[in-house]
C-alpha cells in the first residue's frame, strides 16, 4: 500500500473538525501527518507542494492539485449554493481543484445518502465511486442522560449563524411566542452577533448563549430541552439533529432539508415553509405545551463503523 499521509489541520469541536477528531484515532490504516501549517482553507493552499508522493487523505474537502492521489471527504456541497458574488470563488475552487482531484483518484467519501446523491449528480462521472462512510455519535448522547436544570422549559439550537442555517426565522418565531426561551451553542466569534439579533427582536432576556460544553454537558442540554431547533435550508448531514434524537429529544426542522429529514426520520415536527415565522411559532408552541420524548435510532451511527469504511476505501486504492 502507498504511504498514507493525513491532513490533520481539521481539528476542533464542531462540523468537519468534530468528524476529524472522532475518525482519525480510530483508523487502523497506518498513517502519518502531512505536517502542514497555515490555513487549510486559504485560497493558495490547494497549490502548495506536498512532502509525499503517496496517498493523501483529508477528512474535509480541501484539495491539493499537486497530490498524485487524494481521498477527499465531501460532507456536502452547500458552498456551491452560497449567495452571489461569494459563490463565484467556490464554483472556481470546486471546478479547478476539487473535481480534478476526485476524478484522478476515482473515489470520494461522503457522510449520508442525501449527500451521496448530490455529489454523484455534481460529478456526473460514473467512473468515480462515491462512498457513504456514514457518521457516528458520541456515547454521551443517550436517552438516560441527566437533563440540564432549568426553571422554565427551553428550546435548544446548536450550530452557527451562516445564511443556510436560517436562524433569523426561529428568532422571529420566538418573538411570537411569549415566554418561550432559547439556549444557543455557537462559535465564540458569533456570540456578539447573536446577542444583537436577539436584542433587535426584544429577546435579550429569553435567549441564553452557552459556551465551553463537553459532550456530557451538551448531552444534558439536549436532554433537558423541549425540542432542538434545526431550521437549516441545506445540510450534508445535520449532526445536532442526530445528537438530539439520541437523547430522546424531538427536532423541529424544515421538511425540505433532505439531510436533516433523513436523520430525524419523523422524530419531531417537520415545518412546511422554511421562512414562515408563524409556522415555526406554531411548532414551538406545540413543543412547549405538549412535550414528548422520541425513540432513538436503534443502530446505524457508529464512529468505529465510519472509520472501518474509510479504512476499506483507502485499502481499495492500494
TrEMBL record:
GO terms for molecular function: glycosyltransferase activity. The keyword Transferase applies. The keyword Secreted does not apply. It is an enzyme of class 2 (transferase). Its EC number is 2.4.-.-. One of its GO terms (biological process) is lipopolysaccharide biosynthetic process. This is Glycosyltransferase. It comes from Microbacterium betulae.
Amino acid at each position: 500500500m502507498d504511504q498514507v499521509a493525513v491532513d490533520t489541520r481539521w481539528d476542533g469541536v464542531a462540523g468537519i473538525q468534530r468528524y476529524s477528531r472522532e475518525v482519525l484515532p480510530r483508523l487502523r490504516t497506518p498513517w502519518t501527518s502531512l505536517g502542514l501549517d497555515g490555513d487549510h482553507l486559504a485560497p493558495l493552499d490547494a497549490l502548495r507542494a506536498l512532502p509525499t508522493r503517496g496517498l493523501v487523505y483529508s477528512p474535509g474537502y480541501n484539495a491539493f492539485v499537486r497530490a498524485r492521489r487524494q481521498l477527499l471527504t465531501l460532507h456536502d456541497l452547500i458552498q456551491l449554493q452560497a449567495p452571489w458574488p461569494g459563490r463565484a470563488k467556490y464554483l472556481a475552487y470546486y471546478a479547478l481543484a476539487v473535481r480534478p482531484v476526485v476524478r484522478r483518484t476515482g473515489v470520494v467519501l461522503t457522510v449520508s445518502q442525501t449527500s451521496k446523491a448530490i455529489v454523484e449528480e455534481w460529478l456526473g462521472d460514473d467512473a468515480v465511486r462515491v462512498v457513504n462512510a456514514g457518521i457516528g455519535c458520541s456515547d454521551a448522547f443517550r436517552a438516560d442522560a441527566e437533563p440540564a436544570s432549568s426553571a422554565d422549559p427551553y428550546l435548544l439550537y446548536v450550530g452557527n449563524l451562516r445564511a443556510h442555517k436560517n436562524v433569523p426565522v426561529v428568532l422571529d418565531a420566538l418573538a411570537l411566542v411569549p415566554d418561550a426561551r432559547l439556549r444557543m451553542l455557537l462559535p465564540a466569534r458569533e456570540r456578539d452577533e447573536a446577542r444583537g439579533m436577539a436584542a433587535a427582536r426584544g429577546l435579550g432576556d429569553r435567549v441564553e448563549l452557552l459556551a465551553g460544553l463537553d459532550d456530557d454537558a451538551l448531552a444534558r442540554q439536549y436532554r433537558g430541552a423541549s425540542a432542538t431547533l434545526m431550521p437549516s435550508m441545506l445540510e450534508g448531514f445535520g449532526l445536532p439533529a442526530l445528537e438530539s434524537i439520541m437523547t430522546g429529544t424531538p427536532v423541529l426542522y424544515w421538511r425540505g432539508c433532505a439531510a436533516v429529514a433523513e436523520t430525524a426520520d419523523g422524530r419531531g415536527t417537520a415545518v412546511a415553509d422554511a421562512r414562515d415565522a408563524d409556522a415555526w411559532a406554531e411548532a414551538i408552541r406545540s413543543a412547549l405545551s405538549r412535550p414528548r420524548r422520541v425513540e432513538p435510532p436503534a443502530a446505524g451511527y457508529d464512529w468505529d463503523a465510519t472509520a472501518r469504511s474509510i479504512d476499506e476505501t483507502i485499502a481499495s486504492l492500494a
